[in-house]
Design goal:
Layout lengths: L1 H19 L13 H6 L6 E11 L2 E10 L5 E12 L4 E8 L1 H17 L8 E6 L5 E7 L4 E7 L10 E3 L1 H17 L1
Antiparallel strand pairs: 1-2, 2-3, 3-4, 5-6, 6-7, 7-8
Keywords: Signal
């Protein structure tokens, strides 16, 4: 009998506490991308046009234009396609960045470039992550006095290691993204 009363007491307490705790929405709520909403429209014909913009390392950049043929509305995004091959499988995956994300990525890369022009006394790191989950940054290795730059796609998307490049590669990537941004 005591166990039943104690169990009922704890159930009531936990129920009351749970009622007071606000429901936490997933972090993606409110961050739904226009591209995802546009490409998954129902009861309409959506046209997708893919325009190759060029390559950087193992990444293939594309301008992706979606057009709703019922109302002639359209949307352009930057697509970053990866290609991987195993013994039994060839996989192509594309992650998309909307125009505002590309602009923020360019600004972040320029800040990283400015801040990594010095030679600090200690190991130093910079990192930026887009809302799509693309991570980029730099690492300074004080013992060898060099900066190393990287771009890493989300792990669930791209299972290979990060793409590493030099300071010249960083300048090339910034220039490439600026050109792509203008074409969106």
């Amino acid at each position: 009998m005591k166990k039943t009363i104690i169990s009922a007491f704890f159930i009531i307490i936990f129920s009351a506490l749970k009622a007071q705790i606000p429901t936490v929405k997933p972090s993606t709520v409110g961050l739904e991308k226009n591209y995802q909403n546009f490409s998954s429209k129902k009861e309409t014909v959506v046209q997708k046009e893919i325009i190759k913009l060029g390559d950087f390392k193992d990444l293939h950049f594309q301008k992706i234009v979606l057009k709703d043929l019922s109302d002639d509305s359209s949307l352009s995004v930057l697509g970053i396609m990866t290609l991987s091959e195993t013994f039994d499988n060839i996989s192509r995956k594309t992650i998309t960045l909307e125009k505002d994300e590309v602009e923020k990525l360019i600004n972040a890369l320029e800040k990283i470039q400015q801040n990594s022009s010095s030679k600090p006394e200690n190991d130093t790191k910079y990192k930026y992550t887009t809302k799509s989950g693309i991570e980029t940054g730099s690492n300074y290795h004080a013992d060898v006095k060099t900066w190393e730059y990287y771009l890493k796609l989300p792990a669930t998307f791209y299972s290979q290691n990060e793409i590493q490049f030099s300071q010249n590669g960083l300048a090339e990537l910034i220039k490439f993204l600026k050109t792509a941004h203008q074409k969106l």
